[in-house]
Write a structure and sequence with these properties.
The protein is built from 19 helices and no strands. The chain is mainly alpha-helical. It folds into two domains: 413 residues, Amino acid/polyamine transporter I, CATH 1.20.1740; 40 residues, no CATH class. It starts with a helix and ends in a 9-residue tail after the last helix.
Length: 477
C-alpha cells in the first residue's frame, strides 16, 4: 500500500509539473543559427561601410577592420556560449551579471535595456524598414516623413503580433527572413566576385594608403563595423527555449558568426569592385549593383524586419527573467497560458518604441546605447573570468580558451574608455542615465539597505509607497 501510494504521489507530481505554464524548448540548431544571423544581418551592412571607409581612410584598411570586427564579435559570442552553457537560464546579460557580479549590476543592465537601449535600437531599425519600403516609390523625390513613420509602425506592429501569438511562428518568421536577407547579400556578392575574376581590380591598387588615417578616427571605424555585427548575443536571451543548449548554443554561435563574417567581408569586396571609394562615399551602398537597384531596397527592408523580429524575440525574455527574480514588476514574469509567450514583457516595449518613432529623436540615443551595451558586455565577460577563478569546479560544458576571454574583455573596456575620451558628451550622458538606476534599485528592490529614516518613507504605510509599489518586490535580494 505504501509503495502504491508513493507511486500515485509521484504521478501526481509529474502531472502537476507538466501542467505548469513555462517557456517550452522549441528552438533547434537551425532556428538558433538563423536567429543569430537574422538578428545580426540588418541595416548595418548596408549603412556601416561608409562610416568604416571614412574613418579608416583606405580600402585595404577598411576590409581589415571588417575582418577584425568579425573576429572580435566571434570572441565575444564564444564567451557568451560558455556563459549560456554554464548558467542555463534565459536573460542574457542580466542573468550572467546576476550570477557572477551580483544584483546591482544586473538591475542596472535591466534598467538601461528598458530605458533606452532596446527602444532606441528598435526605433532605428523600424525607421530603416519604413525608409527602404517607401523611398523607392518616391524616387528621386524625398519620401514623406509621416508615411515612412506610418509604415515603420506597421512593420513594428507585425513583429510584436507575431511574437505575442506564438514562439513557433516567431521562429519560423526569423528563419524565412534570414534566408531572404542572405539572398540579398548573395545578389550583391556574386556580381562583385564575377567582376573581380574578370580583372576589375583598379580600386584595390594602393589599397593600404595611410596618408588620411588618424589614430583618433580609427576607433570610430571599429564602432561602425561592430554596429553591423551587433546582435550575436541574442540567442542567450532565450536559453531556456533552446533544445539541448549545451550542444546547440556553441554550434549555432560558431556557425552563424563565421558565416556572417565571411559574407560581410565579401560584400565589402563587391562594393569596392563595382565602385570607387569616392563613389561609395557619395552614393547609397544598396544601389551598388545597378541592374538590381529596384530589388535590393525591398530585400533590405525585409532584412531590417528580421533584425527587428530577433530583437523583440530576445529582449522581452530579459525583462521576463528580471521580473521572475524580483527585479521587475511581477506582471512581466507572466506567460500566456495557451500560447506560452511572455506576453506582458513583449507588449511593454511596444508603446516605448512607438513614442520614439513618432518623435524621431532616436539617433543620439543610439550613441547612448552603444556605450552602455559595450560596458555591460565587458562586465559580463569580466564576471565570467572572476566566476572561473572563484568556482573552478562549477560545471562548464563549453569552455572558451582563456586567451580569447581575456582579449575580448580587455578590448571591450578599451573601446568603452576610448569612447569616453573621443565623445565625452554623449557617453557621459549615457553613463549618467545608467547611474539613475542606482537609487531606483535601492528604493524599490533593496530597501532594507537604506537608512532607517528613508525606509520609513518608503515603507508600506509611508507617503511614497503608492508611487513605488508597482516596482516593489515581495522579498529582498
Amino acid at each position: 500500500m505504501d509503495g502504491t501510494q508513493i507511486m500515485k504521489e509521484d504521478d501526481k507530481k509529474e502531472k502537476a509539473e507538466e501542467e505548469v505554464v513555462h517557456l517550452r524548448r522549441e528552438i533547434g540548431l537551425l532556428p538558433a543559427a538563423c536567429f543569430i544571423i537574422g538578428t545580426v544581418v540588418g541595416s548595418g551592412i548596408f549603412i556601416a561601410p561608409k562610416g568604416v571607409l571614412i574613418n579608416s581612410g583606405s580600402v585595404g584598411l577598411s576590409l581589415l577592420v571588417w575582418a577584425l570586427c568579425g573576429v572580435l564579435s566571434l570572441f565575444g559570442a564564444l564567451c557568451y556560449a560558455e556563459l549560456g552553457t554554464s548558467f542555463t537560464k534565459s536573460g542574457g546579460h542580466y542573468t550572467y551579471l546576476l550570477e557572477t557580479l551580483g544584483p546591482l549590476p544586473a538591475f542596472l543592465r535591466l534598467w538601461v535595456e528598458f530605458l533606452f537601449i532596446r527602444p532606441a535600437v528598435a526605433s532605428y531599425v523600424s525607421l530603416a524598414f519604413g525608409r527602404y519600403v517607401v523611398e523607392p516609390f518616391f524616387a528621386p523625390c524625398a519620401a514623406p516623413t509621416v508615411l515612412i513613420k506610418l509604415v515603420s509602425i506597421l512593420g513594428l506592429t507585425f513583429v510584436v503580433a507575431v511574437n505575442c501569438w506564438s514562439v513557433t511562428w516567431a521562429s519560423r518568421t526569423q528563419i524565412t527572413l534570414t534566408f531572404v536577407k542572405m539572398f540579398a547579400l548573395v545578389l550583391i556578392i556574386v556580381p562583385g566576385v564575377i567582376a573581380l575574376a574578370k580583372g576589375q581590380t583598379e580600386n584595390f591598387q594602393n589599397g593600404f594608403e595611410v596618408d588620411s588615417l588618424t589614430l583618433d578616427r580609427l576607433p570610430l571605424a571599429f564602432y561602425n563595423g561592430l554596429y553591423a555585427y551587433g546582435g550575436w548575443f541574442y540567442l542567450n536571451f532565450v536559453t531556456e527555449e533552446v533544445i539541448n543548449p549545451n550542444r546547440n548554443i556553441p554550434l549555432a554561435i560558431i556557425c552563424s558568426m563565421v558565416t556572417v563574417t565571411v559574407c560581410y567581408v565579401l560584400v565589402n569586396v563587391a562594393y569596392y569592385t563595382m565602385m570607387t571609394p569616392a563613389e561609395l562615399l557619395l552614393s547609397d551602398a544598396v544601389a551598388v549593383v545597378s541592374g538590381l537597384a529596384s530589388v535590393i531596397p525591398f530585400l533590405v527592408a525585409l532584412s531590417c524586419l528580421g533584425a527587428l523580429n530577433g530583437g523583440f524575440f530576445g529582449s522581452p525574455r530579459m525583462l521576463f527573467v528580471g521580473a521572475r527574480e524580483g527585479h521587475w514588476p511581477p506582471i512581466f514574469s507572466m506567460i500566456h497560458i495557451r500560447r506560452h509567450t511572455p506576453l506582458p514583457a513583449v507588449l511593454l516595449l511596444y508603446p516605448l518604441v512607438v513614442v520614439m518613432l513618432i518623435t524621431g529623436e532616436i539617433y543620439q540615443l543610439i550613441n547612448f546605447a552603444s556605450f552602455a551595451r559595450w560596458f555591460f558586455i565587458a562586465l559580463a565577460t569580466l564576471g565570467m573570468l572572476i566566476h572561473r577563478y572563484r568556482f573552478p569546479l562549477h560545471p562548464r560544458p563549453f569552455k572558451v580558451p582563456l586567451v580569447i576571454a581575456v582579449t575580448f574583455t580587455v578590448v571591450c573596456f578599451f573601446i568603452v574608455g576610448l569612447s569616453l575620451y573621443s565623445d565625452p558628451w554623449n557617453t557621459g550622458r549615457s553613463c549618467a542615465l545608467t547611474l539613475t538606476g542606482v537609487p531606483v534599485y535601492y528604493v524599490t528592490v533593496y530597501r532594507f539597505r537604506l537608512p532607517h529614516r528613508w525606509r520609513r518613507i518608503f515603507s508600506k504605510n509611508g507617503p511614497a509607497y503608492n508611487c513605488l509599489h508597482f516596482f516593489t518586490k515581495n522579498r529582498p535580494t
